[in-house]
Amino acid sequence: MKIEELNLPSEAINLYLQAGIEELYPPQADAVEKGLLQGENLLAAIPTASGKTLLAEMAMLKAIKKGGKALYIVPLRALASEKFRDFKRFESLGIKTAISTGDFDSRDEWLGSNDIIVATSEKTDSLLRNSTPWMKDITAVIVDEVHLLDSANRGPTLEVTLAKLKRLNPEAQVVALSATVGNAMEIAQWLEAKLVLSEWRPTDLHEGIFFGDAINFYEEQKFIERRHKEDTVNLVLDTIIEEGQCLVFDSSRRNCVGFAKKCAPVAGELLDRQKRNELEEVAKEVLENGETKLTETLAYCIKKGVAFHHAGLNSAHRRIVEDAFRNNLVKMICSTPTLAAGLNLPARRVIIRSYKRYDPNAGMQPIPVLDYKQMAGRAGRPHLDPYGEAVVIVKTYEELTDVLERYINASAEDIWSKLGTENALRTHILSTIASGFANCHKEILTFLGSTFFAHQQESWNFEELLEDCLTFLKNEGMLEQDNEIIRATELGKMISSLYIDPLSASKIIRGLEKTTHVTDMTLLQLICSTPDMRLLYLRNRDYEIINDYVMNHTEDFIEVPSPFKQIEYEWFLSEVKTALLLQEWINEKSLEKIVENYQVGEGDIYASSDIAEWLMHATLRIASRINPQLEKECAKLEKRIHYGAGSELMELVEIPNVGRARARKLFKKGYSSRQKLATANEKQLAGIVGPKIAQKILSYLGRETDSNGYVEPETLENKKQQKTFQDFI
């Protein structure tokens, strides 16, 4: 089917033709024949790189042509950013695209002036909770990675969000994009969608098992020259020599870093001078965006044309690695499986170094077939590679036969809803009532009956589970009942709007009511006691150190459980350990020191501080109702968590390009306020933060540079009158 034959705006067709897209892939043509451009609901369960994004784009363009809006829902912030960048190219057609991923208690009404809105499922849920007006104008809903309904963490939110959207906008077209799963038809039936099911790929996928010195494919063996004692290194070198790129998946962060370091010296020998020079520049960018030993390791690896990628890296480093791989500078990335589930980074060869993952309850366990298919599906770059290879490394013949049957000859598992637990339901029942989707027992059951969980478990009785949740929410003062009518109280509406688990709210309320002596640690441990906080693992060597801290700072904690209640006490110590990390963050301990002290990555520190900031904001809002004396303390701490700095630096860290480390340097040199910075000598300032940053700071503060580079200070009065971007957000 030719692109020119489609019922799309002529400008859009021209845009695709200019990009070299002239004909649809078979699964895309199947989708069009099943009504994609006539507003039919569709579920496309097709392999990676088979054109799912184009399906989504066509549905969105058609909806916008008819005067509607499109909502593109993704599971991860990184994926949201990638899609936002992709869709920005439609600006030439007069189509405006926006992205929304954070601030869960805002309505983001400004998004309504856009044609395409990209958001995570959590953000979409929060927009529905906050009754955002433009949500009713959505006429096309695209759900990327819908198979994540199976995820215990993200699945329930995605499921309830889709159920709400179907009810709010019953006429909106739903286009769901999925990996190939065992029960695709069941998901399609729930969505009332037609199913596009295909194994077709634009490049052939050869699945093999490396054993001995050869990759064993279905009909042939490919022998790999032994240039190194490590099998995986030989596979990487073979790929690079054949002018391909490869992704290596391993079970842990440490293994990923270790393998990249092992690969770097030999891979670097295959680089020409031009590539070396280009990679030197990329390595410099890495060093400019980090301050830990891992930063230096990553820069070293990138100079050699290899890299590692995992959630412990900061976002700048992840972006640099991804861009360098897309630009064919980095030839190999060793990653944890998170990369397979998220970003679109195809490669000639995918190497699965370990097909087992550590389970704290069961030790090393084989990964699900779906995870294998997701990783293997990254092999083969459309229009660039003649084929893709997915290779699993094994050590014994028994493993070879196991991998063949377990993965290569197997179909992906069915996916199952994870909504049917009190923990998952509690928050969604409150939000369903608070946002007006149901206001009595019967309506709540009707709404729950529209979920994927109810579709799968037809005989399941929600009654008992619902009663438990309603009883908890009423006892906590978040719901009230008048005869048959159930309403959210003002507290309940606020908790739903803040997007925190009602159990988190309950713990915060109890803590604020009990506390008489408040320190930073008091409030930090309080938010770390909530189920919304991601806790650090308590290692054996941590026990004595954290226990000693608790014994010496008992007055800082609202309540300390008895050490004789072992499980409860160890959980409490995990909360304290996490709170101590946050305390070091706001007290400006260097990132390197925090990484060393807690055995975490830079990315983990930022992730923890993001969650802590959100929970401290919620604590501030709750304190305003039940303990107003603590409002000021919570507000101050929320800001400090955001910037990772002391209170005296807040005026400085709010200036763009002045982070916690530069702010402390400036403060020590006597620049303790914006006013003092605004009248600073440029050369002296450059001596502290460097000439480029000095210019940016002074420019932001309203200093103009003449052609000779002289910076003219403004009067303080003029500065007070000048509005900046910060004033509008």
TrEMBL record:
It holds the Pfam family HHH_5. Residues 33-199 form the Helicase ATP-binding domain. The keyword Metal-binding does not apply. Residues 232-433 form the Helicase C-terminal domain. It is an enzyme of class 5 (isomerase). Keywords: ATP-binding, DNA damage, DNA repair, DNA-binding, Helicase, Hydrolase, Isomerase, Nucleotide-binding. The keyword Hydrolase applies. Monomer. DNA-dependent ATPase and 3'-5' DNA helicase that may be involved in repair of stalled replication forks. Belongs to the helicase family. Hel308 subfamily. This is ATP-dependent DNA helicase Hel308. It comes from Methanohalophilus portucalensis FDF-1. The lineage of its organism: Archaea, Methanobacteriati, Methanobacteriota, Stenosarchaea group, Methanomicrobia.
